[in-house]
Amino acid sequence: MLKALFLDMDDTLCDTQQANREATQKLVTAFELRYGKTAAAEQLAKDYVKGIYREWTSDQEEKYTELLKECSEEHYRIVLIQDIVKDAGLGVIDSAQALQLQNKFDQDRLDSFRFFPGIKEFLIEARKYFTLVVITNGPEYSQLPKLAAVQMEEYVDHILVGGQEPEQKPAASIFFKALGLAGCEAHEVVHVGDNLAADIQGAHNSGITSVWIQHQQPLDAELGIDPHHTVLHPSEIPELIKQLHPY
């Protein structure tokens, strides 16, 4: 019997990519105001978003991995902005100006951050029958404001933020902690998420049934990760859960 649902947040319950697109476009405008309407402004914004998602070049990985051992996420992002501006040949931007741009992006993203259509209603209904646990990777710096923006605590029973735990998904430990919070065994739970390497592998590492939200991602055969169930879009989650456990 299904007793609990474990749920990823970004691009599972909430449309993070859309929020990123809207905030990125506004960051392009901010860079244009500073440096002129050039292709460089768009590239700067894209490079910043890649940086906050750790989509680094090999040189960046070496530098920023060491930096993050010694500094906060906020300081890292200031350095990131300073570096991408310098690398674009646009001179030097001081820390205060970089922080201003960083804060603008964060606020614009939060202003655009929302549940996918129908998900809020699904959570309200599903909570009548299941214990709901959100398991989201990422640092407190970015995840806590997003959780607050949609008032996630009003719709689920427990929330685990990877940045607050010893290990993030796909480590089994964070799933085992969720099982303890839900008071369930692994066979009584399904985990829903969009990331094969983090969500689906993590569920499998813990003996939990997986549901992959594919979006438009190809199934990477090289990963060797085969979800137990697949849906194309978050809007299909409610129907699949009803199929697995009619209510």
Notable characteristics:
247 residues, alpha/beta, six-stranded parallel β-sheet, 10 helices, elongated
Give the SSE map.
Blueprint (H helix, E strand, L loop, with lengths): L3 E4 L8 H20 L3 H14 L5 H11 L4 H15 L7 H18 L6 H8 L4 E6 L3 H10 L8 E4 L10 H11 L6 E5 L2 H10 L3 E5 L15 E3 L5 H8 L3
Parallel strand pairs: 1-2, 1-4, 2-3, 4-5, 5-6
Summarize the structure in words.
With 247 residues, this protein is an alpha/beta fold. It is built from 10 helices and 6 strands; from the N terminus they run E-H-H-H-H-H-H-E-H-E-H-E-H-E-E-H. A 6-stranded parallel sheet has the order 3-2-1-4-5-6, with helices on both faces. The model has no long low-confidence stretch (mean pLDDT 95).
Rounded to an integer in angstroms, the radius of gyration calculated over CA atoms is 19 Å
Helix content: 40-55%
Unreliable residue runs: none
Largest sheet: 6 strands, parallel
Q: Order of strands across the widest beta sheet?
A: 3-2-1-4-5-6
Mean pLDDT: 95
Proportion of residues in β-strands: 5-15%
In short:
51% of the residues lie in helices and 11% in strands. The protein is built from ten helices and six strands.
